[in-house]
Design goal:
It is built from nine helices and seven strands. The protein is α+β, with helices and mostly antiparallel strands and about 220 residues long. It is globular and about 55 Å long. It starts with a helix and ends in an 8-residue tail after the last strand.
Length: about 220
């Protein structure tokens, strides 16, 4: 299936809502769960989920349900989860990924990480100032999560932490983990500074399947006499 065809699969509003729900979950999603989440019938959800799987936008696995008894209780449930593949469309074709890989290689080879992090921190601060200017009264965490969602990080709550389901630079992060993780951290630090958020702090805390950074409640400032 061509990249344009893959993206066209998301043109249907129900299918797009199903994809967005599945993509945000840390676990495989059953047809029943997906149908209830977006408010459609199970058969309709199954049809659209299978179309997403055919397009490679979600992956499929099977797992036997726990705690169920009776006829058919042992039948494996079909579960859907966000696929790790990436899709980009440009008409006419442009190869920005290759350019990004070349630039990352140059930064890595020349040891220009400090300059990259400085630029990332500056870019994050600019985004933070804009976000705060547009929503001056919004609570710190909600403002930061909204901005990160707009940038494709897919933030979600994990107890007191805000974790990021997606790394927008996933391909580069696989090839240059310290470089890209350091850049992500600098972006988040800049975002917090620009938005005047002092209640949160960005930390490196890699977790399989998530971005390498996490937002945690900032430690209270120590009092000095």
């Amino acid at each position: 299936m061509s990249e344009i065809s893959v993206v066209a699969v998301l043109d249907d509003p129900v299918r797009r809502r199903l994809y967005e729900y599945v993509a945000l979950q840390p676990h495989g999603v059953s047809r029943n769960e997906a149908a209830q989440a977006v408010g459609v019938q199970r058969t309709l959800a199954a049809f659209h989920l299978d179309r997403l799987a055919e397009a490679g936008l979600v992956s499929v696995s099977f797992r036997r349900p726990e705690g169920r008894t009776g006829p058919g209780a042992g039948r494996p449930a079909k579960l859907y989860q966000r696929a790790t593949t990436e899709h980009q469309v440009s008409v006419p074709p442009r190869d920005y990924r290759r350019a990004a890989e070349l630039l990352a290689e140059v930064v890595d080879v020349t040891g220009a990480e400090p300059q990259l992090q400085r630029s990332a921190r500056s870019r994050g601060a600019a985004a933070g100032r804009t976000a705060r200017r547009q929503a001056p009264g919004e609570a710190d965490r909600e403002l930061v999560e909204r901005e990160l969602a707009d940038q494709g990080y897919q933030p979600y709550r994990d107890g007191a932490d805000t974790r990021l389901r997606n790394c927008p630079f996933h391909v580069l992060a696989d090839r240059y983990p310290p470089l890209i993780c350091g850049m992500n951290l600098a972006l988040l630090e800049g975002l917090l500074t620009g938005a005047a958020v002092t209640t949160l702090e960005a930390r490196l805390d890699p977790r399989p399947g998530d971005c390498c950074t996490v937002l945690r409640e900032a430690a209270p400032a120590s009092k000095t006499n």
